[in-house]
Description:
- By secondary structure, the protein is mainly α.
- The chain folds into two domains: 2-235, no CATH class; 237-311, no CATH class.
- It is built from twelve helices and no strands.
- The chain has helices spanning 2-15, 17-23, 27-40, 44-53, 59-83, 88-112, 122-126, 130-157, 163-191, 202-260, 273-291, 299-311.
- Helix 9 (163-191) runs antiparallel to helix 10 (202-260).
- The chain starts with a helix and ends in a 7-residue tail after the last helix.
Amino acid sequence: MTAIVVIGLFILAAIRLRPLIRKGSDTVFMAAVVEGVGMGINIDAVYTWLDPLLGGQNLTNLISHILVIGGLWFLRSAILDSVAPEAGSIYRITSILPLTATLVAHAVLFFLSDLPVTAASFNETYGDQTTVAMYTCLSMLYIAWVTAETGLACLRYVPQMRASFRVGFTVLGAGCAAAMTAALSQIIFVMGKHFDFLAPLGDVTATLYETCQSLSILLIGIGLIIPPAAASVTKRRTDAWHRQANEKMAAIWDRLREVTKERQSLPVDTISGSELTYRLLVEIRDSQLMAGEASPLTDEELAYVDEVEGKLDVVPAR
């Protein structure tokens, strides 16, 4: 199951390569890669191969936890920057102290534990130690806090978003809820080794953790993909409309130029898209004024020019 989650994270990272190349940085890409590596080295086969190379005392588990927590911080920053850009820097500042405290306490609890032999099933093998239980619960509490805060932020700002963002961040919020549930179920599972009344919940919480962890990555990934995917589709449709409009508007302007004897031409090699559409609209309106009653445009052509003007949201000068 972990391998599927890791594959999903690297697919998300691959999808974010274009924004990374275009902007030079992308927080979602960083989050997916760091989280993916952190969870990847925790796959049993990778763990049992890598940990002996690092001394065979489960240092791989500590590295995995640090990367997962760090990846979650990147993801939190990316999401909060998207839903509340004006508060993004405040959110980052207020998260640095809990992040630092969690990582330091994590390392301290790890090195206080007795972990002599590599164990891919870390909590099953060493979870009866109090320091190990605290070590695991601390990371899960951090994950639960971050996902709860992020999910609530999505819930708060979703009503103010346009359609694609509303859908995307609703799905993302559901993913945060699933991640929080996974973290809390893991806490119950670990504490079941220390409190008898929680022990009967062990199998249920273990299954719940695996299910919700995978579901959270799936939902968060889909939620992050929906807005840029919708924007890409909208851009392609808009570009296609501009190409069609530019062809028709250029033909209309050529007919007007025959009447007005205007020699000016537009630098179509250097401008295109909406800029060209706007320039053509301005030139057509000017040529209409010059042609006056001699304008050769049909009612259909005039209606089309009006339609283009409306779609460009041109505000008449007052």
